[in-house]
Amino acid sequence: MSIQEMKQNIVWLGHDGFRIDASTCIYIDPYQIDGGKPADLILVTHEHFDHCSPEDIAMIQQPGTVIITEKDSAKKLSGDVRVMTPGERLLLDGLGVEAVPAYNTNKDFHPKTNGWLGFIIDIDGVRIYHAGDSDYIPEMKDLDVDIALLPVSGTYVMNADEAVEAALAIKPGLAIPMHYGAIVGDQSDATHFRDKLAGKVDVLIL
User: Residue 139 burial by CB count (10 A; 0-12/13-18/19+): exposed, middle or buried?
Assistant: First the structure.
């Protein structure tokens, strides 16, 4: 599948939440959703309430749903829950999941020592990176991904200008801004991100 085809299958659920409707139905950090398609796979980046929401997960979880997360969130969830740490990879029915670091560099909300996660999903020939709650961190320069989902709001994560730096370092075929419009940040953060990258990295605001 091409990047252009895959982007039609990416649904922003608000804040850091996404659903990917590909050969597998994948949710990432579902929060304040109104139900939805049953999930084959749910990825949870870290334990904060707006990312690890057992109530939201219960709406889409089915007996065969696999949940991948880190150790702190795993304590709050039930079912087929699998714990990953940064650097680990997992193969699920031909779908690749890689756990990558996500942390703050100039604030204390998401310490690196917590081992909280971003994810790279390798599905239908496209590599999708969800940065989790992260600042622009050195590890991003080494990523090889097609689509990057990047926070832009500041306060708890990188702001729009820092996200521009991250996108220029990662060089994805497509960048999608997130982490705005719910708890912190608004549409202006997303449009600033898009405008600063004009002619350099394609940006899709969902």
Answer: middle
**Distance between CA atoms of residues 32 and 35, nearest Å:** 9
Range of the domain at 92: 3-196
Rounded to whole angstroms, the Cα distance separating 108 from 52 reads: 19
User: Is the pTM higher than 0.85?
Assistant: yes
Element at 66 (helix H, strand E) = strand 66-69
- pLDDT given for residue 108 in this prediction: 87
CB-CB contact of 148 with 119 (8 Å): no
Instruction: Please name which of 34, 8, 4, 35 lies closest in space to residue 21, comparing C-alpha atoms.
Output: 8
Q: Is residue 204 a part of any domain in this protein?
A: no
DSSP state of 153: B
Asked whether residue 130 carries a pLDDT value surpassing 80, the answer given is: yes
Residue whose entry in the numeric block shows the structure tokens 């090889």? 144
We report the CATH number of the domain holding residue 48 as: 3.60.15.10
d(CA 24, CA 141): 28
Tell me, yes or no, whether 202 lies in a domain: no
Q: What residue type is assigned to position 189 of the chain?
A: D
